[in-house]
Design goal:
Elements (H helix, E strand, L loop, with lengths): L6 E6 L1 E9 L8 H4 L4 E9 H16 L7 E3 L17 E10 L10 E11 L20 E8 L25 E6 L7 H11 L9 E4 L2 H6 L10 H11 L1
Parallel strand pairs: 1-4, 1-7, 2-5, 7-8, 8-9
Antiparallel strand pairs: 2-3, 5-6
Amino acid sequence: MPPLPGRVIVTGDLTIDWGLEETAKQQSREHEDRLQTKITPRWMGSGAFLLAKMIEAAIEQRYEPMPDTVFVDPPDPPEKEELRAYENPYEHSFAVLARYGKTDQGIGKKKLRIRESLGFGGAIASQQHRFKPQPRDEDHQLSVIAIDDAGFRFRSNKDYWPEELFAQTTARSPWVILKVSRRIAEGDLWQYVMDRVRDERDQFADRLIIVTTADCLREAGAGIYHDLSWERCVQDVSRET
């Protein structure tokens, strides 16, 4: 069994995903009926919120249950009572939801899936979220810094970055996992990471894992072809990166 990680810091862009589900078909065209909404709004934390949950779930599934020696340090969750679309300091995405698939002999509900993506909306500038730096934890050895860079404000403001990211890299330094999902190879965070990777005196590259998608690489100009074999895809990625 591999050694257990210690403390895992999760940070990055904080987004709220909003889904609008049509809960009843409009049967009447009367003015009074059309004033009554038939839509159920739903929301969930995404970005660094969701990344923290995924890491916790992965550790729990691997070790069953989560061992006491592991501590995932997630971002502060939003206050449900105060959460409003746009009227809070988070980025937002919007989508129309619908139910698909079959029920089990008429029991239960169909699966809720995204029918249409409506895009993103920015936070109010005067209410921009202030990322709270995580305090040092002497009881857990920092093993991983996981960053969700969704292309919003986090990448451009060094005050949001954990101070451990600036430390000199050694054999005991934490792994840095950088998840990039929009406009790869742009912004201050990417430039900082690449500067350290190019520094031959720095071991930062040996402790760095970058996670992205083929579509993000294509948007950055990488010649990765669609609908070909996995072998060709791997060759394209290796050549372009």
